[in-house]
Amino acid sequence: MPIPLQKLPYLALKEVLSTMKLKEIFKIASLSKENARRVKPCISSQRFLLTIFSSDGWKIESECSRNFEYWSEDCSKNGIFLDKTGHEVLEFIVEVFNKPNICLLIKNDMEKFHNYSRFFGTLGLKIGQVTFYRCKQGELQNMLEAFKGVPEIHIYSCILEKKIQFDNNINYYFESIEIRISVNSDLKWRKDLLFSLIDCKKVNINGITHRSGGKLLPTKDLKAFLERWIEGSKMEQFSTTAFDLSKFSTVFKPLGQVIPEGGVQKRKCFLIQQKNNGRKAIVYKDEDEVELKTNFELI
């Protein structure tokens, strides 16, 4: 006679659940509060990612295996939680799946970000990643202010507007930020944006290439940016197509920096070093892109 899962001891239940797909674990936990209470400790060693979409749909998945996932559409099709509100379902997920990392994928609705930020705040969670698909150039700085405290930011389209200024007295401190901006955006605005991100750990500002016909920041601005890094910056990785690289190699001699022995993927690179702590980084160009890395191995 088969033994009901509810009557299995902890270690046996944990072993059984380890053989199941996420959708099966979700279904078992959803059957009763007692089931949810017993399932939770059995999966406590796993880390999960909860992604919320603009449609208010969601996906819960294991961070170890992206094939180990369950979607809100499947939840509805399976007749699970039809009597619960969207927030009630999310509260269940947060409780059973041990406060998963939260990722928001939003088209162009900042109010949705604020609503979810407040909601998850009541559950003791902060949003870990935001992907925003479209904003206007004049909205970008307000968005960055709103996203303070979110470690990872992706903004995939920043639409050009005229006569927009960027406050260069504000610096940001994201773990990782990626922005795609118009190739025809104002040069001063573009420079002020780049310099405001000097203390972010990982920065990628893209969309401006030589082939696009857009204007590029002059070599002197690249030199000034690297001087800021040498004076002291938390940046560990940086890449952008924003600068004119036609005189790239002339930047480093005035900085007192050197060409190291070796290179990166057969590209000549320059070694720069911070004044206060001696931290080093390599800087090199890859076609139209300049890259800076503090984690490197010369070959």
From TrEMBL:
InterPro entries found in the cross-reference section:
F-box_dom, Zygotic_Embryogenesis-Asso
Q: Where is the F-box domain?
A: 2-34
The lineage is:
Eukaryota, Metazoa, Ecdysozoa, Nematoda, Chromadorea
Q: What is this protein called?
A: F-box domain-containing protein
**What PROSITE patterns has UniProt attached to this entry?**
FBOX
